[in-house]
């Protein structure tokens, strides 16, 4: 409900507009880590786009192909790895809350579901790591 | 009792974007760390031989259709997750405009654009080798 501007002064109560201070998330550890989790998207998006650039560079032919090699890229990747791990751990842990399955009419414990997600992550990492290194020279 | 103005309909668009958000989150969680570790750190430091360090090994792998499909999933799908996360990061930082329809069009449209660019890069970089 809103009042015309002229009437607002004459009434005792008017609409109280409260807005969240921009730094609300720095006040509690829990809030900070929630924001950090959302922020992980930015470095990961940049890393993937930079990886796409490297794929595109392969179109330039053998003489001018240059993989990302700078110290700055390695440092950026180290930072990205931290964010990537934080995303993986928090997102895969959520599976225990979201996924509900029954086995022999008994609900599968959420710890087991989370464990299976981490197992999938480990297996995928081993397979991909193997392919990336096996086909290298 | 009068009939409702709108028949309830399944929110299919909602379903699609939430599905892509969830899938993007899983793909990013399961696939990205190992690529960052090996191609971003161990390869450039020379600690292990990695396929993208040399043109011949890299172009050979990039020609494989399964690799192309894999790279499309690896690069494009997480952007549907990132689009949602970054939009709500802005909302949480005090930018309510990030909830608006134009903002949704920009962010999810951005994810679609990344998908199209990735397809274009993968199809133009290495000739498709079948078998």
Give short descriptive properties of this protein.
heterodimer, A: 137 residues, mainly alpha, two-stranded antiparallel sheet, 2 strands, flat, B: 131 residues
Strand proportion of chain B:
under 5%
Radius of gyration of chain B: 20 Å
Most extensive chain-chain interface? A-B, 55 and 56 residues
Q: Provide the helix percentage of chain A.
A: 55-70%
Largest sheet of chain B: none
Task: Categorize the overall geometry of chain A.
Answer: flat
Shape annotation of chain B: elongated
Number of E-type strands of chain A: 2
Q: Order the strands across the largest sheet of chain A as they lie in space.
A: 1-2
**Computed CA radius of gyration of chain A, to the nearest angstrom:** 25 Å
Number of helical regions of chain A: 5
Topology (elements, then pairings):
The complex is a heterodimer of chains A (137) and B (131).
Chain A: H1 5-8, H2 29-39, H3 41-57, H4 71-98, E1 102-103, E2 106-107, H5 110-134
Antiparallel strand pairs in A: 1-2
Helix pairs in contact in A: 3-4, 4-5
Chain B: H1 12-42, H2 55-62, H3 65-92, H4 101-125
Helix pairs in contact in B: 1-3, 3-4
